[in-house]
């Protein structure tokens, strides 16, 4: 049984498309640098529902140990340093998922 | 490009394991009843991080039209009727994901 880490971000007022693009660029580099990431999806909210958060990240990992590696990885920390100043709110959870096929 | 719908729930004080189990049972029935659900994962937070929400649902769907079908489906509405009275907070987002290979 693998683990799915989910994080939703709400940006502060005044966050620019360029700042979000820098976050996207930073996150895009992580799968090639953190082999523990089995699946990694992220992006801006599509704006199809009311009251949604602005951005989501979903990381599938083998187990809690792999989650720790992802969390503490310097390349991840570098992107978090970009994200933190933009955050008005953050919501997260980790759930168990079935291993793929 | 498909769509990933993410919802995080925080339960009110006093929600019992039996109530959560009823939610899990209800959600478990949805994939066989709503063919629009390409992938459907959900469950209680594992308790491995601070400040997390209590429960997460991730639904992968073909597009916005499929999301509407899922949302409005009577079997889904039936589970939502179980969930709503238990909710202290809810966080959600929809992001674009790549279609599976």
Automatic annotation (TrEMBL), chains A, B:
Residue stretches making up the Stress-response A/B barrel domain: 3-95
One Pfam family in the UniProt entry: Dabb
InterPro entries reported in the protein's UniProt record: Dabb (IPR013097), Dimeric_a/b-barrel (IPR011008)
Segments forming a coiled coil: none
Domain of life: Bacteria
PANTHER family linked: BLL2683 PROTEIN, STRESS-RESPONSE A_B BARREL DOMAIN-CONTAINING PROTEIN
Name the record gives this protein: Stress-response A/B barrel domain-containing protein
Species assigned in the record: Nocardiopsis mwathae
């Amino acid at each position: 049984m693998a683990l799915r880490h989910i994080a939703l971000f709400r940006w502060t007022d005044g966050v620019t498309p360029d700042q979000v693009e820098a976050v996207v660029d930073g996150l895009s580099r992580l799968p090639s640098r953190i082999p523990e990431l089995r699946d990694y999806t992220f992006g801006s909210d599509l704006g199809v529902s009311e009251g949604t958060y602005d951005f989501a990240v979903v990381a599938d990992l083998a187990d809690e140990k792999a989650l720790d590696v992802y969390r503490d990885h310097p390349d991840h920390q570098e992107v978090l340093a970009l994200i933190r100043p933009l955050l008005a709110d953050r919501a997260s959870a980790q759930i168990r998922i079935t291993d793929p096929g």
